[in-house]
Amino acid sequence: MPYTHWADIHCHIFPGVDDGSRDMDESIAMAEQAQAGGTSLIVATFHAGVDLLDAKRYRPLIEGLNAGLKERGIGVTVVPGAEIMAGFLPDHLADFTINGSRYLLVEFPGSHLPQSASAILMAYRSRGFHPIIAHPERNPTILRDPRRLLKIVEETGALVQVTADSVSGTFGRDIAACARYLLKKGWVDIIASDAHDLDYRKSSMAEGMKVAVKLLGEERALKLVRENPWAVVEDRSL
To answer: Of the candidates 91, 83, 86, which has an alpha carbon nearest to the alpha carbon of residue 120?
Structure first.
């Protein structure tokens, strides 16, 4: 069964595309770091916006990356995905799902949670997509009132992804407290790396998972990096 290993649905491992990996060498090193932390599958996401509308142009990068990983004996597979800004043009959505599934990784502005958040997500649902809210624990609105996230989830059925390094405390005490609160409340469906590099925003989820296991117990915590993300990648219901 493949999901005995961890799957990371949010990782900026595409070489030279956005503010993530700078080149193929760094991408390969990120995959190696991820494997050392327990990950065997990575969804290569990039910040999709108005200047990055052609998702298909990045597919050859995945082929090259997988070939490089195989050549070096690194046991990680990379599949395509994207991180879209909330409000992204609906006509383009099909090219930006996770591994060709119905699932969309959706990022709200880093400054606030818009009043139209639920309406945006429902517009995606109406087109047959299933949104996953990326790293809500770092959104100032949700930091002030985490129940805003619950309200949106109840209204839209969206899934929730928190970042492993948020849980471990890399981004500070307040974000760690919010991430841990969401975990303890059972409002989190997936933990992912949101990795951008090898140092500050790393691809290993091991440290965050140590905290998650303490909070939830091993079985519940591992579901957030195994069964649930694998269901997304394979286009199954959670």
So the answer is: 86
How many other C-beta atoms are found inside a 10 Å radius of the C-beta of residue 74?
A: 19
CB under 8 Å to 154, separation ≥6 — which residues? none
> Residue 62 half-sphere exposure, CB side, CA atoms within 13 Å?
20
Could you tell me which CATH class the domain 2-233 is placed in?
A: alpha beta
pLDDT band at 59 (very low <50, low <70, confident <90, very high): confident
Mean of pLDDT values over 192-196: 98
Handedness of CA 4, 130, 182, 186 (dihedral sign): negative
Helix axes 173-185, 206-216, angle to 10 degrees: 50
Digit-coded pLDDT (tens) for 166-179: 999 999 999 999 99
CA atoms within 13 A on the CB side of 79: 19
